[in-house]
Amino acid sequence: VYAIENGIIEGAAVSGVSDKEHLRATPRLATNTDELLECAGTRYTYSPTILAFEEGILQRKKRLAFVGTPCQIEVIRRIQAVPLKRYSEALQVTIGVFCSECFTYEGFVTKLIQGKMGVNPSQVKKINIKGKILLTTKSEEVKIAPLKEAKEYVRKCLYSCTDFSAELADVSVGGLGLDGWTLTVLRTEKGEELFRKAERAGMIKTRPIKKEDKSILEMLLRSSKKKRENAARFVG
Ligand SMILES: Cc1cc2nc3c(=O)[nH]c(=O)nc-3n(C[C@H](O)[C@H](O)[C@H](O)COP(=O)(O)OP(=O)(O)OC[C@H]3O[C@@H](n4cnc5c(N)ncnc54)[C@H](O)[C@@H]3O)c2cc1C
Ligand code: SF4
């Protein structure tokens, strides 16, 4: 939001919701604050957000941000490495969201949320995964299901995925069980510069990691290690 309101970017490739299918993660090119905020929140199904980045290039945008999962950040870095000039010149900053797994729409939404949990996807306000699936409806009812119920609907992309915390992004963000805070990893000078500017402008509230947060950092390391070990088991 800070970057768009201060002309640092003209738009951001993000993931939004589909007008036709509720909870279907859908690529979106957000070009103003309202559009960005409409895309806040996590959809746990796969979003081909790279298509929104392409849309920005086709619209001849010169300054874009990319927000996505670790695998998508890797694709962006490959585009820069080739380099595909039009794409890499337009890219200003990448924000990666942590990702331990992602689910199929048919399994997670249709079979689990609609079928087993009995909630119409159009009535879902928020989904949180914190050891279990916490689903808040538009009438503020909270429905809970064990995470193991969703395991059969995990997308196969997980089997070859080694990156939990978007290690190639300029800035990586994740919940890691924190309440009301997002753990933010500043990974590059570019990412840190943007973050500090937003902080100085009062656009984000921050606090450093404290001693008591040791368990959060341990969780970050554990989740990263687990993802690598998982992939090693499947890929060999
Ligand atoms: C599939 C998936 C799995 C995740 N797993 C974990 C996890 O195991 N542990 C953890 O700590 N955090 C996980 N996260 C990250 C977490 O859910 C939040 O995205 C992160 O904490 C940022 O929250 P926020 O409130 O700061 O951002 P918000 O303001 O809510 O913005 C979130 C951004 O994520 C993007 N987004 C939403 N859904 C998708 C999607 N399906 N694919 C790509 N981009 C999307 C949106 O474009 C939005 O810009 C996961 C996110 C996704 C998408
Ligand atoms: S599990 Fe890996 S490959 Fe699958 S969506 Fe998450 S980051 Fe991408």
Q: What is the topology?
A:
Layout: H1 2-5, E1 11-17, E2 25-30, H2 33-38, H3 50-58, E3 64-68, H4 70-81, H5 85-90, E4 91-97, H6 105-116, E5 124-129, E6 132-137, E7 142-146, E8 171-174, E9 183-186, H7 189-200, H8 214-235
Parallel strand pairs: 1-3, 3-4, 4-8
Antiparallel strand pairs: 1-2, 5-6, 6-7, 8-9
Residues 46, 69-71, 99, 101-102, 155, 157-158, 161 line the site of iron/sulfur cluster.
3D structure, described in words:
The protein has helices spanning 2-5, 33-38, 50-58, 70-81, 85-90, 105-116, 189-200, 214-235, and strands spanning 11-17, 25-30, 64-68, 91-97, 124-129, 132-137, 142-146, 171-174, 183-186. It has 236 residues and is an alpha/beta fold. It has a 6-stranded mixed sheet with strand order 2-1-3-4-8-9. A 3-stranded antiparallel sheet has the order 5-6-7, with no helix packed on it. A hairpin with a 4-residue loop joins strand 6 (132-137) and strand 7 (142-146). The protein is globular and about 45 Å long. The termini are far apart. The relative contact order is 0.13. The structure holds flavin-adenine dinucleotide and iron/sulfur cluster (SF4). Flavin-adenine dinucleotide is lined by residues 14-15, 25, 39-45, 47, 49, 67-69, 97-100, 102, 173-176, 182.
Regions with little confidence, pLDDT below 50 for 5+ residues:
none
Number of helices: 8
Mean pLDDT: 95
Report the radius of gyration as a whole number of Å.
18 Å
Q: N- to C-terminal separation?
A: 42 Å
Side by side, the strands of the main sheet go: 2-1-3-4-8-9
Shape: globular
Q: Briefly note the structural class of the backbone.
A: alpha/beta
The ligands bound in this entry are: flavin-adenine dinucleotide, iron/sulfur cluster
Order of helices and strands: HEEHHEHHEHEEEEEHH
Query: In what range is the share of β-strand residues?
Result: 15-25%
How is the biggest beta sheet arranged? 6 strands, mixed
Number of strands: 9
Helix residue percentage: 25-40%
